[in-house]
Amino acid sequence: MIVQHSNTFAVDIETLRSEKQMDYIDAVVLWCEQRNLDIEYAATLIKKDTIIKTKIQIEAEFLNALKKNKKSAQLPL
User: What is the pLDDT of residues 50-77, one digit of tens each?
Assistant: First the structure.
């Protein structure tokens, strides 16, 4: 089952994000709800996709839900 979802996961998340105009984190939660899957399942897919993982990490840092990586500098907005 993971192989089937991992092929389309990133595309599905990007599609949800643009269609519903939502954050990545919200898109992942909605994706899981639509498929009746646990969020832990999505975590395994996120770990395998570095692009989505990075986008979620940046979003979480922006929302102060995750401490910022000291190696990456970001200008204040």
Answer: 999 999 998 988 887 666 665 555 555 5
pTM given for the model: 0.77
Give me the residue spans of the domains in the chain.
2-62
More reliable by pLDDT, 77 or 39: 39
Q: Shortest CA distance to 13 belongs to which of 2, 24, 1? A: 24
Decide: residue 33, CB within 10 A, 0-12 exposed, 13-18 middle, 19+ buried: exposed
Alpha-carbon gap, residue 61 to 45, rounded angstroms: 20
Collapsing DSSP to helix, strand or coil, 49 comes out as: coil
Copy the structure tokens of residue 43: 């975590």
Helix axes 50-62, 39-48, angle to 10 degrees: 110
